Amino acid sequence: MPFTVRTAPVSAAGTADTAYILSDSTDTARAEVWPGFGFNCLRWQLRQPDGGWGNVLYTAPDWETNPVPTRSGHPILFPFPNRLAHGRFTFEGREYQLPLNESTGTHAIHGYTPRAKWRVIGAGGERGHAFVSGQLQMSKDLSTGTWPGDFVITVTYELHPTALVVECLVENVGAGPMPFGLGYHPYFAIPDVPDATADEMTLHAPTGELWEANAGIPTGKRLPVPGEFDYRAAQPIGGTHLDTLYATGTTLPTVSRLGHPRSAGTLHVSAPADFRELVLFTPPHRKAVAIEPYTCASDAAHLPDGGFRVLAPGQQWAAGVRYEWRGLR
């Protein structure tokens, strides 16, 4: 099955962009990537039996007037995911102060990449999948902010018939060591149940521990998962409010599964062991569930076992995550 890529002019909140639209020749799968808005894969859709499109990624209905960078689609969180306490940390004897852009104004959150304009460095379609690759360099593409060293991050989205694959390459192009953490913040919906809410969805995640946290900042302790938050056996989410950081400690190929009793399919989230943490989040509107693979804990810079990776000058790191909708067709 051949796949294609085309571009289309788009805009949000008065800011123009060029979207890259990946699709298959039979028009049964498509993805829409906005490079100017954090290289966010804003939409991933599958054709339904009634001929309409079903959303696997949730997009806020007010996106075009209020494009909040981390509340729709597939935000990329780098060089750290989630919160960094007071936006301040010390590395190699130097103190760094980051913008306090968390909603309370107390902490830094989600790094720089979801708010940045990325450069597209390649796109194409072939038999089996279509792809688009975006790149961002700290010193070249970010006019504000600070971080130890200089990085280049390259992300490639691949659209397959029933899957979206996200590949990432991180390079240290600076003169000294560079720490980092990577996270993805996808908001998943049920494509064949458009009115589904998180309360009705069924979740499975093989997570044995969670990080104790105070106002979103881990204390450093890892605890057994209490029953309400234990998804090692699939269970309905119900009224549970999730904004929870888990230590997966697993090398299982499937990190999480999301389903619905009225759906003919199930979402499978798969990641390698490099993604050692998992955040499960139910947004206030509860029209989606965020299943977020992280390579480190929140506030990793302040935790002895937080999981920050450190690359030497010239060193690279690469890993991929796969999201697959199974059973719909």
Overview of this structure, please?
With 329 residues, the protein is mostly beta strands. Helices cover 1% and strands 47% of the residues. It has one helix and 28 strands. The strands form seven sheets. It has a nine-stranded antiparallel beta sheet with strand order 11-12-13-14-28-24-23-18-21. The protein has a six-stranded antiparallel beta sheet with strand order 17-26-25-22-19-20, with no helix packed on it.
Quick recap:
The chain has one helix at residues 138-141; strands spanning 3-12, 15-24, 29-34, 40-47, 53-55, 76-77, 83-84, 88-91, 94-97, 108-109, 119-126, 129-137, 151-159, 163-172, 178-180, 183-184, 187-188, 202-204, 209-214, 217-224, 235-236, 243-247, 254-259, 266-270, 277-281, 289-294, 309-311, 316-326. It has 329 residues and is mostly beta strands.
Keyword list:
329 residues, 9-stranded antiparallel β-sheet, 6-stranded antiparallel β-sheet, mainly beta
**Total number of strands:** 28
Unreliable spans: none
Topology as a string of helices (H) and strands (E): EEEEEEEEEEEEHEEEEEEEEEEEEEEEE
- Helix-strand category: mainly beta
Radius of gyration over C-alpha positions, nearest whole angstrom: 19 Å
The end-to-end span amounts to: 15 Å
Q: Give the averaged pLDDT, no decimals.
A: 95
The count of helical stretches stands at: 1
Q: Sheet with the most strands?
A: 9 strands, antiparallel
Percent of residues in helices comes to: under 10%
